[in-house]
Design brief:
Number of helices of chain A: 19
Radius of gyration of chain B: 21 Å
Distance between the termini of chain B: 46 Å
Shape of chain A: globular
Number of strands of chain B: 8
CATH class of the largest domain in chain B: Alpha Beta
Number of domains of chain B: 2
Strand content of chain B: 15-25%
Strand order of the largest sheet of chain A: 9-8-10-11-13-12-19
Helix content of chain B: 25-40%
CATH topology of the largest domain in chain B: Rossmann fold
Bound molecules: thiamine diphosphate, iron/sulfur cluster, magnesium ion
Largest sheet of chain B: 8 strands, mixed
Order of helices and strands of chain B: HHEEHEHHEHEHEEHEHH
CATH topology of the largest domain in chain A: Pyruvate-ferredoxin Oxidoreductase, domain 3
Oligomer: heterotetramer
Strand content of chain A: 15-25%
Chain lengths: 593, 299, 593, 299
């Protein structure tokens, strides 16, 4: 299933199962756009896909890549090495030839690139992207259309579903006006029909996905739609990369569902506005990326203390501080769990892939309502922007229609019962007993009155913590991939799910007794995880964060503290790039060596 | 003020029904009068406990919600306005009242004031300005006059204070008034007008901190030799920002009354309008089908 | 040395070594004031003292206690039970009689209190505080002067140094005007001379402190003075209990040293202003308590990334959220270490007693300058307000005169050298090479230019972390009290130092092989701590915070993660009160039972 | 402007010496002109690299310090002003320049503006207002006009924007000017006057974001059919807040020039005065002895 073992040439006669295409150019040339279309095509052809892109450092664009991993079976990562490189410029060629596997194909613009390196059996194919496009659609400023020309080339080369691809182009460019669409289609056809003797033909094995309705999307979109499906109708945020596109989606979509999303003046206001809506009886959302999460810490701590439900999305990026805003990292875990002052128990979850972004919000909303506390979802820059194809969620099953519960509360209503889970009464609900409840961040008694009583503070602290202990007991224990015990357990959380699975297979291929597991519930950890880990000789926690002063990544730190299991080791990195499968395999090899 | 949407109109509340915990304020604190005045207005307008909610940040004055027998929330320092914004936008059936001090509102919360004002969030905000930090025991506040000594200005405060009326005008608040806790009738009138204003309304009330800054506002109390000068609304054009700005420049204790009022759509109205227009466009698709449409476009 | 074993009666003929006096009344009555004077007296008479007070919940006052533990030898805590209770009101009597030890003395205002409980051999002594005071100084409003009358009583009862006490009264009330002072002295004399057959006489053993210059102070004052002695001349803060009095001191004192302290509009501004001064070449300070630390998290993370030195003082109080603002807790440790997004290494220290508040700032300033990163000092509400007596710091040894280094930087100057510790060049310093440095929170190369290079990010992340690892190797290993190995090690951090030491002795008295140690450097922990802990069968980490979802307090969590030593257990509580020695002893007993 | 205290006056810097990294701004971005204008002023005033420091928050415009070959610091979003306050108060020898966008200054940083203004911190703040969030790619900013579509207002922005001049007047800024990046000469003049103003000076520069909001300020560019109307200082009383407030109410694109200027002591002056008075009182005790005195009182 790995793309690395099989070269396209080798399987020329057989159908291809996997191919990794790296488009390298300048972001202005629309490489993201055609990469996205390839991703969308996968959704329509029962194929799997995972994409990866880099974002240029200036707003007006600059060198950038878009990598697409297409597969007939499961696709778990964006590809360690590329089968095909499309190089638009000399700098693209120079910077990315190394990413091609041995015997890979380098397709380049023969008018811009000089073929300088003859190495590792790489097949060079020069095509005059620029002039062929100009020929097809007339000379346009800024070489527009080249990308679509290349899409046509790729379509022919891999026998992609031409009709569906044309449909995607029509949807994308149709609204921009007739002329533009016509140009696009002409460019596409020119690429599709372009004759080059060099050009090999590959054919994909039919996709294996069985569901009739497949969609393709990035993670941020699925988080946004998941929120709506969870019954979230109110929220507030402040722009920050890579969180912004979620708030843009909510701002656009929520009014259709009768909801409101507020662009606040800053993150402090955003979390407060969301908390106001939650207090008012509508579970609400706020979100940001690292620096913004730091600014929300005080109010999140309030939600823990006042036991108000709240959804907080944090799309992690490279840190600390402004860091690497368009790179991926998983270094906000400890902040998410421990970032507020005092003992402020909250729930922290992380989705494993784009599809899971949808379902994790549904679970988060359910937990926030049940435990009446904030739930933080840790996504990351890679998940936010990459495209995957998967089955359309079944909304019959996965839909919560929000309800505002203003029913009269009985004589015994208390906003903070010591023995029971807190369920607030929103404003507007009548109190049978005649005395109206207060919600507060001061330590309080059961009615919400401030209380400095020592016994009360001890009890209330325990109450807020014990609901998480009770939850931990109910959480499903993480599934183990491959065997339930053995020599090696690879574990991770968030977007590294795919590469870790794949690394597990590779270690098996190498004869090691490896298994893998994935932590979806980061705080509290599911009860019984200790015992699970204890069944393995070595536990490797793979994370995209720093190994810190004591040599352990952030999840590893928590696991070690909870279980004191010295078999827990860390494989960490902070280069701002998603894990390659080989890096994980090497990490394990190095440890065992 | 939002139109009360509660199903059945109810009996007016008695003072007794409105009272909750006995206030923890110091004897003589101006905030007692603000509370009394607030009770008057609730009674006068015939609001019941399911019609309104009290929101506050942190400070002596921000303890207000505990003393009102209604739904209430005591939030963190300086963020009462955004919290109230969340309530207001998501619950058009509720009158949202926000209470707080000069520190809470003009120091740590100053930016939220700027933005809630320009966005014209539908709520009423009462600022109990005692020109000092009460709860933390006598530090300089953003409205402390130059020369006053405090724990953080042992030599007398030197920074120019915030001019509340000018700041509110500068940030386009749509209803701005000023009153004095020693003048309960005036205060009650201001509150009533504020509540009736559609959109964002602010009343700054000079409310003496008897513990740390006694006598601060005597200059506007006739029985203490001061003058309580009202704005003459026959002469003052309530809709003129520049007239209001002139009033705001008067020497302490200045004038009292409504400085400015304009009626423009609140953010609540504007967002609702967008929702309505969207609904008109999309017809009555069930919410799930709306999302299915979205999914279809992602195929 | 314990005050609990010896009853004052029993030692009536011998000199007293320890006595715990609890003054219970309303805060308006000036009980803090006479408690403070007793504390100051200790400083002047070579005695040891530790005080403890509660703060009423309303500004205008209310029930409150002030407890004074006076001792001729070492005094490590404020006393578990009282030898003497002074009850001003019936509620004082009712609420605090239980705090008296068996056979203790209850001195009460016979006009306000009805003696209702005859129990545990307690000696009741009624004295008409109110009328006797009125008699002495004439009828005054609000019973002022009662407190000073009681001080006179206590002075006679314990043969305190009358002359020194009068000197203290004169200093305190002299500036308030002659009349007031005269009244005070009259009230004092009346109490001193008051005849009651019941009143026993006790005599203190001479103080054992040998230093000629003893001072008495609370922790906040010593933090403030420590800052000045460390060469800190600039800072900014925003009021919050119990941090405020440090900023009030700095605002008052710094101008005398040519410095400026700014009261900022909020904590976000405060930390930024301080960082501005640090960047400008003057190591600066900001501080707050829990909620304020949360608000500073983003800027502290910036200081980690930009490698700017900064001192941050956090005086912990009961949490989470607004919590219990006037109670003590140690629940901000994880926030202090992990509260910012991304991997943002910083240093965290905690003082063990009031005296140490002075020296810890000196160390913090030295570390901030050396490592060019933020140093957070975690004090707490108990340390902030309690009074202790100790030797005056020797300023010859402990004084850093600040210097602004504007010297020209050589050709090879780099703001962020990968291989060396960062030392910024402040504005105004000339660059020999002609190109001027940038300081930034984006990931950067050695010159401060933003860089998205993956290898660079990995290296710079390691650089920021490795300086802490290097520091850890240099830190002195925590000293062990009693034996270097054995059955039980008690450990703690911050203000629990005294009770833990005392608990260690008590466990020894009970025949257990107990030792104790104290962690001053919380992050990074000194290298070698693992091995130290491994020498004990059980390690009990005693903390005033919650045991969390996994059963461990905050320091215990870090220790377990670092060492995976399963012998590390937690003794935790969150009742907002300082540890009693007996609670620690019981905690160990319960575990071993 | 602080009096330069550097020991020896130095040669004027050349443009080349002043330039650092080539700006990463998009072609045509208005911020290029601001940078050019800034270089002009530095040259004109004869400042050298040891005399001044550039501070910024986060945003396209906030990348400014990278492009100037001087000491510079790129801080976090919205907090450049307090950081600059720390530099200004502790380093009277430095000219402190702060650069940033409308989002950085009026949205997340709005409160710091209020307070730096009232405290009259000695520094010069240039706000490159493009009425949009550039760096995060086209969301509504606090100055975005009603009706404009952005990623966060697909239906067109509905909230009333901040009125920068009115807000600055409301918060008592002591020097307030407005300019336009297409008018380099005017801009340079404004900068120069701002730098020379003792205390807190702000220049709002309309600076077009060619990427996301092209043409936003054409209405004030004559060659694009607009009008560039200057404030006539013969008629306008620079020290009148209410006149300035009237000017601030003009319809877009309004007038350009200095809206308001008053000379009152800066916080820098006031704090220094306190230090001096304290020193006069205490005589010349060595710092250590001062603290020993303190200890003595604690015995
Ligand atoms: C984040 C944060 N910072 C500081 C505080 C401490 N604090 C509580 S109330 C207050 C100011 C009180 O002044 P004001 O708002 O004028 O209210 P007043 O007590 O005078 O009514 C401060 C600084 C806090 N609770 N939280
Ligand atoms: C705490 C925080 N919130 C949000 C962001 C994301 N962010 C970066 S710049 C910016 C706004 C940019 O707009 P503006 O200040 O007007 O500058 P411009 O790019 O238009 O020059 C935002 C929201 C951030 N870096 N930090
Ligand atoms: S301290 Fe001042 S503001 Fe607070 S309750 Fe007392 S009098 Fe009122
Ligand atoms: S996005 Fe706009 S503001 Fe940013 S550099 Fe480009 S043109 Fe300038
Ligand atoms: Mg106040
Ligand atoms: Mg902008």
């Amino acid at each position: 299933m790995s793309s690395v073992g099989a070269s396209p040439q080798a399987t020329q006669d057989d159908a291809l199962r996997n191919v990794v295409i790296r488009l390298a150019g300048n972001s202005q040339d629309g490489i993201q756009s055609i990469g996205g279309m390839l991703g969308r095509l996968a959704g329509r052809t029962a194929q799997e896909v995972m994409t990866h892109m880099t974002i240029p450092s200036t707003i007006s664009g600059g060198p950038s890549i878009y990598q697409v991993h297409l597969g007939s079976g499961e696709v778990l990562h964006a590809g360690d090495v590329a089968d095909v490189l499309v190089a638009f410029y000399q700098h693209s060629y120079d910077d990315h030839l190394d990413s091609l596997k041995e015997g890979g194909i380098c397709l380049y613009d023969s008018e811009k690139v000089e073929e300088t390196r003859d190495e590792r059996g790489i097949h060079h194919i020069g095509v005059p992207f620029t002039s062929a496009t100009v020929e097809a659609i007339g000379g346009t400023a800024k070489d527009r259309g080249k990308n679509i020309f290349v899409l046509g080339l790729l379509c022919a080369m891999f026998h992609l579903d031409r009709e569906k691809l044309v449909g995607i182009i029509e949807r994308q460019f149709g609204r921009k006006g007739e002329d533009i669409l016509r140009n696009c289609l002409n460019a596409f056809d020119a690429g599709y029909a372009f004759q080059t003797t060099d050009l090999r033909q590959f054919r994909f094995a039919p996709g294996e996905a069985t569901h009739s309705k497949r969609i393709s999307s990035d993670g941020n979109t699925m988080l946004g739609l998941g929120l709506i499906a969870s019954g979230v109708r109110y929220g507030a945020g402040y722009p920050i990369t890579p969180w912004s596109s979620i708030m843009e989606l909510l701002r656009r979509e929520l009014p259709k569902y009768g909801g409101i999303f507020v662009q606040a003046e800053d993150e402090l206001a955003a979390v407060s506005i969301a908390l106001g809506a939650s207090y008012a009886g509508h579970l609400a959302v706020t979100g940001s990326s690292g620096p913004g999460l730091a600014l929300k810490a005080e109010a999140i701590g309030y939600a823990c203390m006042a036991e108000l439900p709240l959804l907080v999305i944090n799309v992690q990026r490279g840190g600390p501080s402004t860091g690497l805003p368009t790179s991926v990292e998983q270094s906000d875990l400890l902040q998410a769990i421990y970032g507020s002052h005092g003992d402020s128990p909250r729930i922290v979850l992380a989705p494993k892939d784009v599809e899971d972004c949808f379902y994790i919000v549904l679970e988060a909303a359910q937990l926030a309502r049940r435990c009446s506390c904030p739930v933080i979802i840790l996504s990351d820059q890679a998940l936010a922007t990459r495209i995957e194809a998967f089955n359309e969620p079944n909304l019959h099953e996965h839909w919560i229609e929000p309800e505002l519960d203003l029913s009269e509360r009985g004589e015994d209503f208390k906003p903070y019962p010591v023995e029971n889970l807190t369920q607030h009464a929103p404003p507007g609900s009548r109190m049978a007993e005649g005395s109206y409840p207060k919600v507060t961040g001061l330590e309080h008694d059961e009615m919400g009155h401030p209380s400095g009583n020592p016994v009360n503070h001890q009890k209330m602290t325990e109450k807020r913590r014990n609901k998480l202990i009770a939850l931990a007991a109910d959480l499903p224990l993480s599934e183990v991939y491959r065997e339930e015990d053995g020599e090696i357990l690879l574990m991770g959380w968030g977007s590294t799910y795919g590469p870790i699975r794949e690394a597990c297979d590779r270690l098996r291929d190498k004869g090691l007794c490896a298994s893998a597991t994935h932590i979806r519930h980061l705080h509290p950890l599911p009860a019984g995880l200790d015992e699970l880990l204890a069944r393995f000789e070595h536990v490797f926690v793979i994370e995209m964060n720093d190994s810190g002063v004591y040599g352990h990544g952030q999840l590893a730190t928590i696991l070690r503290a909870a279980s004191c299991n010295p078999a827990i080791h860390s494989i960490c990195k902070t280069d701002g790039l998603a894990y390659r499968v080989s890096e994980i395999v090497d990490g394990v090899d190095n440890f065992l060596a | 003020m939002s139109d009360s949407q509660s199903a059945q109109p109810e009996e007016k509340l008695s003072k007794k029904q409105l009272k909750a915990d006995h206030p923890t304020w110091c004897p003589g604190c101006g905030d007692f009068a603000v509370l009394a005045s607030f009770f008057n207005v609730i009674q006068k307008l015939g609001l019941t406990q399911t019609d309104f909610v009290c929101v506050a940040g942190i400070g002596c004055s921000s303890r207000f919600p505990y003393f009102v027998n209604s739904h209430g929330i005591h939030f963190i320092h300086g963020r009462a306005l955004p919290l109230a914004t969340g309530i207001s936008l998501s619950r058009p059936d509720q009158h949202v009242f926000v209470f707080g001090g000069d520190g809470d509102g003009f120091s740590i919360g100053g930016n939220h004031l700027n933005h809630a004002a320009r966005k014209n969030i539908n709520l009423t905000y009462v600022i109990m300005d005692n020109c000092v930090y009460g709860l933390t025991k006598n530090q300089t506040s953003p409205t402390t006059p130059i020369g006053r000594r405090s724990k953080t200005d042992p030599q007398g405060s030197a920074d120019r204070p915030i001019n509340p009326m000018a700041q509110l005008l500068g940030s386009s608040a749509s209803f701005i008034a000023r009153s004095h806790a020693a003048h309960v009738k005036h205060m009650t009138e201001m509150f009533e007008r504020a509540v009736k204003h559609p959109g964002f309304s602010v009343v700054e009330v000079l409310s003496e901190c008897t513990m740390f800054y006694p006598g601060a506002f005597d200059a506007a109390i006739p029985r203490k030799g001061g003058e309580f000068n009202l704005i003459n609304e026959e002469e003052h054009d309530l809709t003129s920002t520049s007239k209001a700005f002139d009033l705001a420049q008067l020497e302490f204790p200045g004038k009292f009354g409504v400085f400015y009022q304009d009626e423009r759509p609140s953010k609540n109205d504007l967002e609702q309008k967008w929702i309505n227009e969207t609904h008109d466009k999309q017809g009555d698709l069930a919410p799930q089908d709306l999302m299915r449409q979205k999914f279809a476009a992602m195929q």
